[in-house]
TrEMBL record:
One of its GO terms (cellular component) is plasma membrane. It comes from Thermus thermophilus (strain ATCC 27634 / DSM 579 / HB8). The chain crosses the membrane at residues 6-26, 33-57, 77-102, 109-131. This is Uracil permease [N-terminal]. Pfam families: Xan_ur_permease. InterPro entries: NCS2.
Length: 137
């Protein structure tokens, strides 16, 4: 194991914890379910990609606002779970679209020089909110 592998592993551990434990706690969902499904999803991902991409799949922070809004609107956790499952199907449709048109075509539209800084800006913008919320609970 090289120092680069150690740093990558540490980064994935931090990302995994935030995505897989913090998101369910913030939304009132069960972290055990999130850990289990993230593990199964990661194993399926590694099988599909032939273990070529070292990644852990966790919960999406994109779902926090819609889940909290749905809870405030009076929707049950079952209904919210159905919405999350429907969003998962949309993800699958987009994955099939990328499979059909090719990932290189997607990279032409969204090159790493564009997507990388956008992800960094999103993370830096949300970091103070996460620190504040973690400090309260």
């Amino acid at each position: 194991m090289t120092p680069r592998h150690l740093i990558l592993g540490l980064q994935h551990t931090v990302a995994m914890f935030g995505a897989t434990v913090l998101v369910p706690l913030l939304t009132g969902l069960n972290p055990s379910v999130a850990l289990f499904t993230a593990g199964v999803g990661t194993l399926v991902f590694h099988l599909v990609t032939g273990r070529m991409v070292p990644v852990f799949l966790g919960s999406s922070f994109a779902f926090i606002a819609p889940i909290l809004a749905a809870k405030e609107a009076g929707f049950s956790l079952s209904a919210i779970g159905g919405g999350i499952a429907a969003a998962g199907l949309v993800y699958v449709l987009f994955a099939l679209l990328v499979l059909l048109i090719g990932s290189e075509r997607v990279r032409q539209v969204f090159p790493p020089v564009v997507t990388g800084p956008v992800i960094v800006v999103i993370g830096l913008t949300l970091a103070p909110v996460a620190v504040e919320m973690a400090g309260k609970d």
